[in-house]
Design goal:
With about 290 residues, this protein is α+β, with helices and mostly antiparallel strands. It is built from eight helices and eleven strands. The protein is globular and about 55 Å long.
């Protein structure tokens, strides 16, 4: 599935918003800062694995959530609900029903919750004609989570700072076979484990390299949280070894895990790798492309 647009009109005046997953192609991590966050330097791509968010206006100023698919957690803690309420407070108007169909598994470093929140911010702004500037939407998103502004921007970006500094980058067309384990990795525990075995933040890949075919640079990708994630979640290391034994290409982790990916030049190559990995006892495999928006 690769929708041509982020937004689709629904009967009755509602709006469907597609919320893509992300993969960290290269994730470099610095030491914990004084504010409690880690500095990062990451090349991030939005890919065609989507949650579906449907929005309908309400006249009573309430925000109600219905969730299908993967667990959305308690409504009060859900980032999509919190984003809706924050935007309503900002604009002084609103009220919305949110139907969230989750296909992006949580706890795997794919950014589904942050993407849902960004979709609600952008979708409510369009649906209610609030006229909130894109820069302000990003500021509101950043107040809820470091990854949210990423999903309000272009398909590929370089992320620095604690994740709030974003720079659009030109990236070659790519595809990925994404390995989705049956287990997740707790982000806080992974970063704590990283703090016990830190390593220097290496140099980022140069922009001209990223414009070449992925097969020419995928062997240079690095995620500095990988060892920490495997310490926290030993089955992750075992699964990675299994995947590496079946494919003739580098296997990378996204975010703090547990999802992994094999970067490819084409959808056909990614589909071949997905086929070679079936069946996997502890994971499923999805084929995804770089989003068009």
């Amino acid at each position: 599935m690769n929708p041509a647009s982020q937004f689709e009109s629904l009967p009755g005046g509602g709006l469907r918003v597609w919320a893509p997953a992300k993969i960290n192609l290269n994730l470099l991590v610095g030491p914990r800062r004084g504010d409690g966050f880690h500095g990062v330097d990451s090349i991030v791509a939005k890919v065609t694995l989507f949650d579906r968010v449907e929005l309908h206006t309400r006249g009573d100023g309430e925000v109600l959530l219905r969730c299908d698919g993967f667990d959305c957690g308690p409504a009060e803690a859900n980032l999509a609900v919190r984003a809706a309420r924050l935007l309503m407070h900002e604009a002084g108007s609103g009220g919305v029903d949110i139907t969230l169909a989750k296909s992006i598994p949580p706890g795997m470093g794919l950014g589904g919750g942050s993407s849902d929140a960004a979709a609600v911010l952008a979708g409510m702004n369009a649906l209610l004609q609030l006229g909130v500037a894109s820069e302000r939407l990003a500021e509101l998103g950043a107040s809820l989570g470091s990854d949210i502004p990423l999903f309000l921007g272009p398909p590929a970006q370089r992320m620095t700072g604690r994740g709030e500094v974003l720079e659009p980058i030109a990236l070659s067309d790519l595809a990925a076979a994404i390995i989705l384990p049956t287990f997740g990795c707790p982000t806080a525990a992974v970063y704590n484990a990283f703090d016990r075995r830190p390593e220097p933040m290496g140099p980022q890949l140069p922009p001209e390299t990223l414009r070449q075919k992925p097969s020419q640079w995928r062997g240079r990708l690095k995620n500095q949280l990988t060892a920490a994630a495997q310490d926290v979640c030993p089955p992750l290391g075992l699964l990675r070894q299994t995947v590496e034994s079946r494919v003739a290409a580098p296997v990378c982790m996204t975010g703090s895990g547990s999802a992994m990916f094999v970067l490819c030049d084409s959808a056909a190559e990614a589909a071949d790798i997905a086929a070679a990995l079936q069946p996997l006892e502890e994971a499923s495999v999805a084929v995804a492309l770089l989003t068009a928006w």
